[in-house]
Amino acid sequence: MKFTGRTTRPSRPYRPERQLKDCELEKAAVDMRAQVERVKYHATCLEVKLEETTTELEQMKTQRDTLHNKVVRLDQSLMHEQGMKAFLRKQLDETKEQLAYQKSLKRVFIKKEKEVRNELKRLKRHSDKETIDSVEIPTETEYNLRKKQKKALQKEFDELKVAHVISQERFSAELQAEREKNIALQQEVTQLKVAYDTNVSYESDLKAEREMRHLLQRQFERVCQSRPERALRDPELTEQPKTERDAQLGQ
């Protein structure tokens, strides 16, 4: 046996405690990486969902603006229709007043005509034939004149009566059309209200999603900050225990 001049140092036994600790650290690092990956994946999904919901929200805002403009136009149209209705009512009242005035005027002329006839009869009874003959021409002329006036008044009265009937029918038709328009406007306003309530609910859900995303982001940051420095170095966690085991086997 040759003496080489070197003393062989006994190999240090591999302590099970250290091996167990390294295994636990390696397992903790793997779990931590898996948890980080899950958090990253969940955060990515939330970002995609947030982008989609943001796009949908913008579309909803555009639709809401369009609906708002439509409501404004409908309000203006409703105000115009109400003004037209008031104008037609005023015109109908004026027509009724004019018709009543014409009726009153007709009654006055009829009364005057009766008075003239009575006066003519009285003159015929109390006057002689010459006086009657002398009075006949102007009286007959006046009677013919009043008869023409009566015919003119009767014609005007009939025209006003026909105009009143036509105006009444037109007013009834326009009033019915206004009622139908008001019903349609009320239905559209109800639909707009439902759409607005849906938009408000959608915005609340989006706000909750944003808060959840911020909460997950803060949790992810706390996890990253609380990990030990050794857990952040993934290659060392996997290679160092293997290197130490190889060194022990080589010895």
UniProtKB/TrEMBL annotation:
Keyword Coiled coil (UniProt): yes
UniProt region (Disordered), positions on chain: 1-20, 224-251
Keywords from the named record: Coiled coil
Biased composition (Polar residues): 1-10
Biased composition (Basic and acidic residues): 227-251
Coiled coil feature spans: 43-77, 168-195
UniProt-recorded name of the protein: Cingulin-like
